[in-house]
Amino acid sequence: MNEVNRTLFIPLYGKAKVSQQGIILHDPDAERIWKKEGFPIRGQSASQWLAYNMAMRARVFDDWTDEMLAAHPEALVLQIGCGLDSRCRRVRREYRTWIDCDFSEVLSARKKYFEETGNYHMVALDASRQEELETLPDSETAILILEGLSMYLSEAQLQQFFHTLKSKYTHLYVLMDVYTQFGAKASKYKNPVNDVGVTRLYGFDRIEDIIRGTDLQLIQEHSFTPEHLVAELRPMEKRIFKLLFTGPMYRKIYRLYELSSSYIAKLPHHEDTGVLCITRVHCL
Question: pTM of the predicted model, to two decimals?
């Protein structure tokens, strides 16, 4: 695998390590896959604090996906940049169709552990190629999971990405993590992906610039580290973890945005983040 594809092992390691402790995230698949595919982890990637952070991020995406499926059971679920993630098995809600997408070499590794079924499929896909995005199945409604993807696409590539998918799906619900410009610059000096050879990442300060020209809107900014998950750590761990992965400095580096094409009524700015929020109007 190339350097970008090898980054999939960093969250896999974190999820496996935390799942073994019986906290935050129950992920026996990550434990099983890491036991077979894992390699010696060095540097920041081996940090227990990063492992907690990766597991919490995955859990936030899981819970959001369950919420979207509860409201839109007919939706097509697209996880682009799936790596070796087992979200399709971790979610509690039933789904009509789930498609996990990644580069063909990643899916070759994935297919050793996951089998396609009547409602679960794997599709080789380069998210930077419009013609490949256009071949995805049509659906009135799509739930789009973008975990650990945006930082490998330029602003122009992300803009084209959203224009293409919005032209395919009338109702599109999105959760995506992004680096800020400061976070992308800082990543040159302190980022776990450097441990597997990645040297170029992208960051964005205004999500509005990415979705301009579509009818997607920013709904809210989510926390990667909600208090109820942090509470599962031991007292001393909670104190250290909060210093490292919560607060204004962490947000200056890394953010988690919910977007949708089916929200209309504007609310005041969120009291914690200062981000303009929009109320949810489900289009069933």
Answer: 0.88
